[in-house]
Amino acid sequence: MVSPDFLDKMRERNGRDYKGEDDHAGRMQHWPEAPQVLLHRMQLKLEHVLLGKQAVIRQTLTALLAGGHVLLEDIPGVGKTVLAQGIARVMGGEFRRIQFTSDMVPADVIGGMVLEGRSGELVYRPGPIMANVVLADEINRTSPRTQSALLEAMEERSVTIEGETHRLPDPFMLIATQNPLSFQGTSPLPEAQLDRFLMRLSIGYPEADAEERLLKQYAEGNRQDPARLRPVITPPEWLRMQKEAAQTHMHHALMEYMVRVAEATRRSPDIALGLSPRALRDWLRAAQAGAYLEGRGYVIPDDLLATAEPVLAHRLAVRSGMSGGEALRDGSILAAIVRETPFPREAGAGFGGRRVR
Known about the structure:
Layout: H1 4-14, H2 21-27, H3 35-49, H4 54-65, E1 70-73, H5 80-90, E2 95-99, H6 107-110, E3 111-115, E4 122-126, E5 133-137, H7 144-156, E6 158-161, E7 164-167, E8 173-178, H8 191-194, E9 199-201, H9 208-220, H10 235-245, H11 252-267, E10 271-273, H12 277-293, H13 301-312, E11 317-318, H14 324-329, H15 332-340
Parallel strand pairs: 1-8, 1-9, 2-5, 5-8
Antiparallel strand pairs: 3-4, 6-7, 10-11
Helix pairs in contact: 3-5, 4-12, 12-13
């Protein structure tokens, strides 16, 4: 629920009465269909191959629509590859999967220079990173040197070989996975690389009814292969959606609230590493993308609350001596800060008795 004062500010700022999809669709007259219709169709197609996981599908689309990357931290066999491959198909992009192992080197990911037989010259041979959607499977199974090869790709959308920069396909999205239970022979991702992931998500086990439907599909031989999904949009249309989502209006009172949350994490006696400015930037982008998915041209407090844990929790580090892994894994420390930090009065009230000043 949002206060009338907050909505009045939105109407005054935009010079129109925001009532939802009708007005927003009017802004997007150049689209053959409203972007939210296309995004909803993408979600439905993905729900056909990843049964019963509407929430994680929506969160993943939100992160990618915000121009970010996703870390899926989960046990094997719950559908991480299915989700990544399905997203690549519905957006009409190219999909590549990289299985990380301990003996991989950076060139196995980003490519390298090879001797061209006919000309006798060194030429760049692209690696599997050159795709629209890349699944970096078990990213923590490889060495820190190979992990670091992804940093430039994730942040700059490019790779540098022998001093020459090569641009990645546009759009570019990385979905990485790691097993949170098996740590033998792994190299944990450093904080600098974790900070490059806009969201950390978990698919989890399916509900009983979804698992029964899955088994029925296999038994009857009508299980849909994600590689056979038909595209809903094209990569250039996805880029346009990303640009429009980034233009979603964020009221200054909501940005004030975000800064309050960041300051609270930096002052907390339980947290050694608080939120960085990059974390707030990603939180802003995710909230804008969430509003865009809903067909709104402005962000409301609910958009921030819905994206807080998946965007922020993995960027915090607790102080030594605390059971930090469990605390951060269930989001308890962050949830308490988000819950106890008051929204400015202009941002609205009605959030579970939250104090508003």
